[in-house]
Amino acid sequence: MQSGKALSQFFFLVALLGAAHLSAAQEAYFVTYSHQMEEPGNLEIGVKSVAGSPSGGNAFLGNALEFEYGAKAWWTSELYLDGQSTANESTVFTGFRSENRFRPLLGEHWINPVLYLEFENINSADKSLLEVVGHDGRVDFLKRNDRSEKEREAELKLILSSNVGGWNFSENIIAEKNLANEPWEFGYAVGASRTLALKAAARSCILCRENFSAGAEMYGGLGDRYSFGLRDTSHYLASLVEWRTPSGTTFKVSPGFGLNDNSHGFLFRFSVSYELNQIASRLRGH
Amino acid sequence: MKRRTLSICSVILSGAAAFAVKIGDGSWLTRVPESARLRPNPVASDADSIVAGAKLFQQNCASCHGKSAEGRDKHPNLHSERLKAATPGELEWLLKNGSLKNGMPSWSRLPEAQRWQLVTYLKSLD
Question: Which end of chain B, N or C, is less surrounded by CB atoms within 10 Å?
């Protein structure tokens, strides 16, 4: 009980810190990745949250505290700490994820591939919904919070992304493997987004169109190695709005809708992030 | 099964690293295609272009290159002869493609018009 209260206070503090100081993500998407990498030497700290209320279950708020570092211009490394709160149940820490993204082609092309590798060490209570794979669905969220099952998973993504005329189009193919001898699971995510103004205004402004992007993304599961396809999978379509403030704080919101009976009817995602520029130089005192 | 999965992951990791090290060879200027090199700056005559470019520079570039583009840490000073000699098309190409091997990120996420505004500002530097 004590630890539950302490964790609630931790996540509340994280949310407060997020609102006060965190900022600047790179794309409008929540689930889909583009080929945009973190700038080398920069550290982005952010909170990504998702709220849902599955029919037949309790409302939940999944949180992921994100640390994204630009190791090289072609290599971005990320660490997520996941937790969640479920109404009438508890607030729990659910594990961590470590991911790396590499751009194998060192130039801009019509379609830009990125290789993504992730290791997850989470438990069965995780509700961060950072991707949907296999037969993931609403029924997974109906069980009471139970952290007994450990999920150590490797995840691979092929990210394809293009920037054309102010638009970004991104497609992700996902393959995930629970290392405890379970079959490969597959998923997808696709998105399109565009900044609302192609030219920057000469004056400094906070609410001008150039600071906003809007778009949509669609994501879902594709079954597993033994039952590949759309049967018993869940799918979502979400709209996206991103607001980049001149101070470097970025806010994103995304209302999303389930497209079949296996999906949550409605998911509301929001995030706040802040980018610390040239963190290594700062630490060295330059 | 675990060993097989780990082997697949290691092969992909080492392949990606080797590929990334192999690609990218030297000066970015030598890689600019002729068609990009000769492109004129479509916003060069806009009255607001330098000011808008300066604003974009402060938002996106100053953390590495310094607030006055004087260079910072290992990042180059942009008041250089090389930059003065570069054509607008070459600079826009560099902003779009970056020079990932040398630490310069791609700014293709900025719309093309904003990259040209940045070029206008860069060309205005003494």
Answer: C
In angstroms, the separation between the Cα of residue B38 and the nearest Cα of chain A is 18
| CB < 8 Å to A75, chain B | 20
- Is ipTM over 0.95? no
- Per-residue model confidence as pLDDT tens digits over A25-82: 357 999 999 999 999 999 999 999 999 999 889 999 999 999 999 999 999 999 999 9
Residues 6+ apart with CB under 8 A from A137: A221, A232, A233, A234, A262, A263
- B73/chain A closest Cα distance in angstroms: 7
Domain B37-124, CATH among 3.40.1160.10, 3.40.220.10, 2.60.40.1120, 1.10.760.10: 1.10.760.10
The reported pTM is 0.85
Across B6-40, b (16+ Cβ under 10 Å) vs e yields eeeeeeeeeebeebbeeebeeebeebbeeebeeee
Distance between A91 CA and the closest CA of chain B, angstroms: 32
Tell me: the pLDDT tens digits for A226-237?
999 999 999 999
Listed by number, the residues of chain B in 87-126 with a beta carbon closer than 8 Å to a beta carbon of chain A are 96-106, 108-109, 111-114, 117
